[in-house]
Amino acid sequence: MRHLVREAGLEGTILVESAGTAGYHQGEAPDRRARAAGARRGIPIDGRARQFLAEDFGRFDYVLAMDRSNLDDLAALLPETARPGKLHLLRSFDPASPAGANVPDPYYGGDDGFDDVLDLCLAACRPLLARVRRERGLP
To answer: Which of 50, 58, 137, 139 is paired with 26 by a 20 to 30 Å CA distance?
Structure first.
């Protein structure tokens, strides 16, 4: 998503962050295979892992989960005062994805799994960015 926002020239307007529901890898760089998959497409995969905090719901209009398990973990943190429709499965924005589709975890598979995950994420993030642009009246 960050790459698409940058390509659209909206980097100073749309804030994109990544965080996990657990702190297992806090402070670590992305998996080398994820970085390699991004590099093959000219997409930098960078940053440092951090854990999602309940306060993050107040900072973002959209909170996206990669799978149902993470969605459930995030829903448990969702404040009662949160705007409805804030929490989503990422693939719900891809019209070609089946309802409730997860982004698979490529960690225990081969390198091609990271390419597949990147494709799934881009397929969902393109329509999500179009939606945000419409909602916010952005070019």
So the answer is: 58
* Angstrom distance (rounded) from CA 43 to CA 118: 10
What are the tens digits of pLDDT across the range 76-112?
A: 999 988 888 999 999 999 999 999 999 999 999 988 9
C-beta of residue 97 within 8 angstroms of C-beta of residue 122: no
Residue showing tokens 């499965």: 89
What's the gap between Cα 124 and its chain centre? Answer: 9
Model pLDDT, residue 83: 82
pTM above 0.85, yes or no: yes
d(CA 31, CA 84): 33
Domains of the chain: 2-136 (3.40.50.2300)
Question: What three-state secondary structure class fits 20?
Answer: strand
Query: Closest Cα partner for 118 from 128, 108, 103, 130?
Result: 103
Extended strands (E) in the chain: 63-65, 87-89
